[in-house]
Amino acid sequence: MNDLKSKIEAAADAVRSICDRTPRVAVVTGTGLGGLAEAVNAEAVIPYAEIPHFPPPTAPSHRGRLLLGELNGASVAVLDGRFHSYEGYTLAECTFPIRVVRALGAETLVLTNAAGGLNPSFELADTMLIEDHIDFLSGNPLTGPNDDSLGPRFPDMYEPYDRGLMAIAREEASAGGMTLRDGVFVAVPGPNLETRAEYRMLRGFGADVVGMSTVPECIVAKHCGMKTLAFSVVTDLCDPERLEPVDIAKIIATAERGGAALSKLLQRVIPRL
Ligand code: HPA
């Protein structure tokens, strides 16, 4: 058995030995989205440190635990805390948890993140449905030998984010009276934020928000046959003409404000996925 597959199975076996629930939907909580975990009726809360081959998260405001339980009747796995390449992990390491929740049975992945707003009509704490993405990360989580039993060598990116799931999210946002933006997410490696010239370039390339995560997880989800739905919370405004020095505490506070609204939306959306 190849190395990646045996690691996935070791991690999934360790989780199953604690809780044998089969999740249908897996959720990754980005900065500010920790509140969603509180809404889960958890059957098990497993620190990442107890799951073989999970790296310990180092990013501020990211917890590191896997919750298994129910969210408004839906069987869910919540990856509460994610891994970023700027922490020093390879993209394959960053996305390992996605492969594990897939091995546990999850068929749908919901990704959330904090991002900078490039679209001038966006406001602080807005939520954006990610319709498509641009990948400016260095590297790819699928680099290396491909295990055909995990997924295809050349996964297509025809529909990285599932249109049917997006329709459900739009319906529920509208029913709940919530403004839901939509647009393109561009992923950059970080950890520094961007220069004015870079924000101008990213906007010129057609991106609406910029962040340091999500795209590798979407690629791996596509590789292993999961449907993906993803959201960004706008935490800072990246207008090159009116750029202000970034205050990370302010970004986290804005992420928490926007995250509370997104968490409410997800509680309506997830049971329908
Ligand atoms: N750039 C990159 N990542 C981010 C930003 C940003 O402006 N804001 C939040 N995450």
Automatic annotation (TrEMBL):
Entry annotated with the keyword Acetylation: no
N-terminal signal peptide: none
Origin: domain of life: Bacteria
Domain Nucleoside phosphorylase, first and last residues per copy: 24-270
First-level EC class: transferase
Transmembrane segments: none
UniProt keyword Glycoprotein present: no
EC number: 2.4.2.1
SUPFAM superfamilies in the record: Purine and uridine phosphorylases
Pathway assigned to this chain's UniProt record: Purine metabolism; purine nucleoside salvage
Keywords: Glycosyltransferase, Transferase
GO MF annotations in UniProt: purine-nucleoside phosphorylase activity
Functional note: The purine nucleoside phosphorylases catalyze the phosphorolytic breakdown of the N-glycosidic bond in the beta-(deoxy)ribonucleoside molecules, with the formation of the corresponding free purine bases and pentose-1-phosphate.
Protein family (similarity comment): Belongs to the PNP/MTAP phosphorylase family.
Protein name per UniProt: Purine nucleoside phosphorylase
Name of the coding gene: punA
